[in-house]
Amino acid sequence: MSDRTRNRLLQALKVSGPQTAADLSKGLDVTPVAVRQHLDGLLSEALVEYEDSRQGGVGRPKRVWSLTQKGHGQFPDNHSGLILGLLSGLKDLYGTEGIDKLISHRQAAAKEAYQKELQSASTLKSRLDVLADLRSREGYMAQVETDGSEYLLIENHCSICAAATACQGFCRSEMDLFQELLGKRVALPREEHLLTGGRRCVYRVRELA
After folding, report:
1. pTM attached to this predicted model
2. Pseudo-torsion of CA 22, 25, 26, 31, nearest 10°?
3. CATH top-level class for 80-207?
4. Domain over 3-72 is classified CATH 1.10.10.10
């Protein structure tokens, strides 16, 4: 199996979720036979799994492929073990107040760095595009989709998942950061949340009247 095709398949399942071999073939411009061969290889490595679904109860069942927990583990998580150890040590030394100060410091530093990149973006869409690019560089696999007059800011991976799981304050801080960057005249409720069972984090962004 070529590493390039292997990685493209894993990323397609990570970004777009469960898909059939035909869906993957079309999206990646790889022949269905080749896709099935690669999926079998990933299956043998326990990186993917499948479920046969018979939609509507008629016709041949469709085999829908998805990532296993091990498959999701192929994406970076910013050294989760080290992060958890540091957070635990910080809490032991300084209590929850120390954690809160760390989160506030991280948010302020990110705001300063992001604002420099956003200076030339004049529209909401352009600001979201820049923000998604910045987040992708940090491992969040972010993208922006247009949904009518609104936008979806999607993060397909959480590069600080271990820290966010240990302390929900990180998630709240990132929502506050987005709000600060996009302004008070923008609403951005979170529609999906990776840490509460979602496949990814999704924010619906719209300008307020």
Report:
1. 0.69
2. -110
3. alpha beta
4. yes
